[in-house]
Amino acid sequence: MGLILAVVNQKGGVGKTTTSVNLAAFLGIRGKRVILVDLDPQANASSGLGIDKKQENTANTYSLIIDKVPLSDCLQPTLVRNLRVCAGTIDLAGAEIELAPLPNREQCLKTALAGFTEPYDYLIIDCPPSLGLLTLNALSAASALLIPIQTEYYALEGVTQLMETYQTVRQTMNPTLEIFGVVLTMFDGRTQLANQVEQDVRRYFGEKTFKTVIPRNVRLSEAPSYGQPISVYDRRSKGAEAYLKLSREVLKRTKLWKEKQA
């Protein structure tokens, strides 16, 4: 099976969904078989790929985790070749309550994915902005974490808590979980603050930090309202160029990761 990446940061507005959608799209364009699991009740990753959030009688991530519907029955095609999505839904907001009394409640997503037998190269999980049960399910199921951090004030606030949660999950639920990489987002090189935050993040995470930095870009902000990843909306924009470069880095790291696992 392929690499399962959880895109996680408990802070909101740091570029998790933008990164999940656009990285998945460019990996698909580059010929990789990609599945995006939208674990956020806001379902912005789904709508960003042209999937109607209000689809009725369509299996989704809630169906996968709570109703035990096979992942193969939950996947929908997108505008991007090789990319399918398990759509999010507002019903996920109540899933944490429904999961709470269950035995092994942090393992429900992992169990669901284990039953999926179709070949894939990447399964990307767009996590909600919290460290609740849904995110814990993603951490339990994932091979590795991809952490977006915005280059703004308080950027590293909360990272310590995320790292503590990561270590706890490694010790209790997923001992092979790794940090795949940290990506700097919303970068504005004209400001001293952004450059200082970049230095701080690279000092903290070292080689885990991707060389590629995602800039602030109007076209990146516009694309979701059209239900399109940036690769479709404006392939020549700076945002598209950045995510294309990020996908190349991800492919190189994946090769190293596979060699390490062998």
Strand content: 15-25%
For the record, the CATH class is Alpha Beta
Alpha-carbon distance between the termini?
A: 13 Å
Structural classification: alpha/beta
Helix and strand pattern: EHEHHHEEHHEHEHEHEHHH
CATH architecture: 3-Layer(aba) Sandwich
Quaternary organisation of the protein chains = single chain
Number of domains: 1
Spatial extent as radius of gyration: 17 Å
CATH level 3 topology = Rossmann fold
Task: Describe the structure in your own words.
The protein contains 12 helices and 8 strands. The chain is α/β, with parallel strands linked by helices and 262 residues long. An 8-stranded mixed sheet has the order 3-4-2-5-1-6-7-8, sandwiched between helices. Helix 6 runs parallel beside helix 7. The longest helix is centred in the last third of the chain and has 24 residues.
